Amino acid sequence: MDQFSKEKRSEIMRAVRTRDTEPEMRLRRALWGGGLRYRTRTSIEGAKPDIAFPGKRVVVFVDGCFWHGCPKHFSVPRENASFWSSKIEKNRARDARNNQRLESHGWRVLRFWECEVEKELDRVVGRIRRCLRNHESST
After folding, report:
1. Which tens digits make up the pLDDT trace of 97-126?
2. Residue 136: which pLDDT band, with cuts at 50, 70 and 90?
């Protein structure tokens, strides 16, 4: 049986942050500390990336392992499994549409799982740096 009442579970889910999550903030601090300047809370081609480098036309998303269905860490909850499976599939479909729309308008899209940011921060920052540097050499 579930350890929370339906009301308590709803309260917990409402408290889940959609922006400024801990993995996102950790990545932003690392980028800023490394001298990279970016924008947040921007809407680009209908998408809302977590981090944007408008001058380089590069956007970064930090996808939550649960909400976007990380292949390493996601498992469908036992309670209301059909709802959650559908929800995660809709999130993935929206992510794919956003990627396609941004790329078709000349943006480079980078996506990282929250677990990557937590466990491999230096690699993630390095990939972003390389992407930004490659953009400089191609313009």
Report:
1. 999 999 999 999 999 999 999 999 999 999
2. low
User: Is 72 within the bounds of a domain?
Assistant: yes
**Please, which residues bridge with residue 112 across strands?**
62
DSSP secondary structure string for all residues of the chain = --SS-HHHHHHHHHT--SSS-HHHHHHHHHHHHTT---B-S--BTTB--SEEETTTTEEEEEE-HHHHT-TTT----STTHHHHHHHHHHHHHHHHHHHHHHHHTT-EEEEEEHHHHHH-HHHHHHHHHHHHHHHHHH-
Parent domain of 92: 19-138
Query: Looking at the domain assignment, is residue 7 inside a domain?
Result: no
Whole-number Cα distances in Å, 70 to 45, 78, 97, 139:
25, 17, 18, 34
pTM of the model: 0.85
Residue 10 falls within a domain, yes or no? Answer: no
Question: Is residue 66 pLDDT above 50, yes or no?
Answer: yes
**Cα–Cα dist 95/11, whole Å:** 26
Question: Per the structure, how many domains does the chain have?
Answer: 1
